[in-house]
Amino acid sequence: MFYRPEDGHGLPHNPFNAIVTPRPIGWISTRGRMGDNLAPYSFFNAVAYVPPQVMFSSTWSKEDRGDTKDTVAQLREHGEFCVNIVEFAMRDKMNTTAGLWEAGTDEFALAGIDKAECETIDCPRVANAPASLECKVVQTLQLPGESNFATFGEVTGIHMRDDCLVDGRFDITRFHPLTRLGYRDYSAIREVFSLKRPGE
C-alpha cells in the first residue's frame, strides 16, 4: 500500500503514529500564572548532547487556551519546564493527566501524584519519577498545520532515582519505561541488548 497523506489513507484509523514507534513519553510539568500543570507528550526526544537538549511537540488546542494547550501556553509565560520519565507503574496516573482538563487544573493533585520542586528552575516535578530533566526553553517553533508547536529546551538539571543507578549506569530495566505506540496502544521496555559499532 502507498498513500499520500494529503489524499488520505482510506483506513479506519490513521497508521502514521503506528509506523513511528515506539516513542518515548515526555511527561511535561510547567508552572504559570494559573498554577502548576502536568501533561504527557509522545512527540518527545533528546536532540543534542552538549549542551544536553530535548524537544517535544504539542499538536492540539483547547478553547480556553486559544491556539494551543496548557503546556505551551504556560511556557509562553514562564519559559521553563521539566520532563519527567514515565515508568510502567505510573501508566494510569499518566493517562489521567492526558485529559483535556480546564485551564488551571493541577494534574498533580487530580491524579494523586507527589510533587517536588526543581533545583535550577521554578517548576514542579514528579517526585518519584525514575528521572526528571529540568529545562529552560531555547526556542518554540510553529510547524505547518494548525496548533503544531515544537519546543526545544536546554537541560539545566537532572534528577535520577537512586534505585535506577546500578554499577554507575542508569538502568531502565529497574522501572520499565512506558512507550507510546500507535492508536491507543502502549508498551513497556523490559528487555535490553547491546550492539557495538563497527570498529569499536
3D structure, described in words:
There is one protein chain. The protein is mostly beta strands and 200 residues long. It has a single domain, classed as Electron Transport, Fmn-binding Protein, Chain A (Pnp Oxidase, Chain A, Roll). It is built from four helices and 14 strands. It has helices at residues 16-19, 70-78, 91-96, 107-111, and strands at 23-24, 26-32, 35-41, 44-48, 53-58, 80-85, 115-117, 124-126, 131-142, 149-160, 165-166, 169-170, 178-180, 186-188. The strands form four sheets. It has a seven-stranded antiparallel beta sheet with strand order 3-2-6-9-10-5-4. A three-stranded antiparallel beta sheet has the order 1-13-14, with no helix packed on it. InterPro entries: Flavin_Rdtase-like_dom (IPR002563), Split_barrel_FMN-bd (IPR012349). This is Flavin reductase (DIM6/NTAB) family NADH-FMN oxidoreductase RutF. GO terms for molecular function: FMN binding; oxidoreductase activity, acting on the CH-NH group of donors, NAD or NADP as acceptor. It holds the Pfam family Flavin_Reduct. Residues 18-172 form the Flavin reductase like domain.
